[in-house]
Amino acid sequence: LAKDRQAVCDFATTAGGMVHARSIDGAISGLRCDFLIVDDPVQVRDCNNLAHLEQVNQCFDTELMTRLANRQTGTVVIVQHRLNRADLTAHVLKRPGFVHRVLALVAPEDCEYRTKNGVWRRKKGDILRPKAYAPQLIDELRESTGAPGFGPLYQQSFDGPGVLQLRRDDFVIEPLCPPAIP
Description:
With 182 residues, this protein is an alpha+beta fold. Helices cover 20% and strands 15% of the residues.
């Protein structure tokens, strides 16, 4: 670390690299970056607060993305649990250029990930962090996780029995006024 820039949220290295850490609504005017990392922009307690989710999405578009020094070569990484179908991940996946990488706590199928050190393979059922999440703990999480549910929070998926799935056919559509009786 550079001796003159060692603050927790604002530090530099002797090789010229810098880190500026801010909350999602923190001041970032005048800062530019080549790498933008957005880490958990929404608290779990706000998973169903659609107004807040929209505010975060707008902040990302109008404030964070404008901080990239070069939009064509800059890198954006969003690290978050899936919290809602309207969260920041859903928001950016509607546009070209973003790639979705999912690291489910429990691998839903056999999968391979290319890394700089080769290929990392996970078999269906493999636990992402087995020393931190024993199978018994995962069972407890499946049973006890409230909104948004185990699937979105730990599997990055909106599928499964613990996630409310509403479809158009779940609703009966009736006329507002009964038909006139002749």
